[in-house]
Amino acid sequence: MAQDSSFSAQDSIIRPRKRGGRNPAQAPGALYAALDLGTNSCRMLIARPEDGRFRIVDAFAKSVRLGADLERTGALSRPSVERTIRALQVCATKLRKLDVRHMRLVATEACRRASNGGNFLDQVQKRTGLALELIPPEEEARLAVISCAPLVTQTADHVMVFDIGGGSTELVWIDITNVPPEERSAAVMRLQMDRDIAEVNGAKLVDFISVPLGVATLHERFNDVEDESARFALMSWYFEEQLAKFRPYEDLDMLEGVQGFQMIGTSGTVTTVAASHLGLKRYDRRKVDGITLTEAQIDTVIARMMAQGREGRRNDPSIGRDRAELIMSGASILQTLLRIWPTDRLGVADRGLREGMLYSMMEANGAFPTKGQNDQG
Where is the signal peptide (predicted)? Predict the structure, then answer.
């Protein structure tokens, strides 16, 4: 199962913990909530700061397919809107029940692209009471980088963090050559997504791109191609075409001599590939988050998924029914990125926008020391 496939999968990872028989959501201390409404999924975490980290006390994840048919029509469909609002009503109920005072609720690519995206957000506020913030791609990428920063190794001189979403894929290339090894993770966490700021604490943003293709939009674009191998090749080729303006792709000569390159991926695609490699019949975040996969291991998993066919993937417990339809479009993106850049290893991150939002809010409120690192429970 992918990290965002269903609530039951999430619940198995981050079920509220009890101390002395009491639900931690009822213990003293301010609660924080982060909600990420993407093209395919609606996901929310509720947490509290604890000992320089944060502890998750409740969660919600649902595949709402908000961007279904968006590639063809340019608008959010009525069924998609209704599915999504029902999920957001569940989130609103949780927030009220737990009396959450600190929250950030964001919408991303589907609402950015849809001609009726603004109208949809107005409907959400009227029917659920939730005011969703439509964030730009740069902020989406910044939050993903913050969440992945604890996985940056001391030996990494260059880091690329990528997030394969439902409607878009963000790539951030960071040069930390001038940062002392023990400070590299913290420097990445404080990175500013502004090309005019050369360095922040020694960390330099080399380039950033948001490609308007994710697992849902890329799948939809090539869904009429019947042969799976041909469709996979076309998706890979088309995605690579969109990287033409990304400086580390445009000027591949700049990569000659690069040492200590680390690639970190965060997305349902990446965690599903990791779960499949591990042979997990029930998703376990503790076994997936932070592991490293080789390119050969990833290629083996993708080849096996391709051989399974659609029905085989639907019946594979390590993939899950909700993820089965979109996993190959995500895999085409993943394999393309590994083919282009100088690495044969990938760091797997089961974390993303929600964790980045929680960390940012808590740090801004002085909830824990600046150098504390988060723990998603």
Answer: none
> Could you give the 3-state DSSP secondary structure of residue 369?
coil
Three-state DSSP class for residue 78: helix
344 and 278, same domain (yes or no) = yes
CA distance 126 to 120: 10
Residue 317 lies in a domain: yes
Regarding whether 174 and 123 lie in a shared domain, the answer is no
Secondary structure percentages of the chain, helix, strand, coil, to 5: 45, 20, 35
The domain total for the chain is 2
The burial class, CB within 10 Å (0-12 / 13-18 / 19+), for 274 is buried
Helical H segments across 165-213, by residue range = 184-189
Is the pTM value of this prediction over 0.90?
A: no
Residue 194 confidence (pLDDT) = 64
Mean pLDDT computed over 200-216: 86
What are the DSSP E strand ranges found in 238-368? Answer: 261-266, 292-294, 345-349
For the chain, how big is the Rg over CA atoms in Å?
20
> Which token pair is 297?
């291991």
Residue 47's alpha-carbon distances to 29, 312, 355, 376, in angstroms, are 10, 37, 10, 9
CA distance 143 to 148: 9
Average pLDDT over residues 353-363: 90
Same domain, 252 and 319: yes
| Per-residue pLDDT at 21 | 45
DSSP-derived pairing of the beta strands 102-107 and 32-37: parallel
Domain boundary among 112, 136, 160: 136
Residues of the chain with pLDDT > 70: what percent?
86
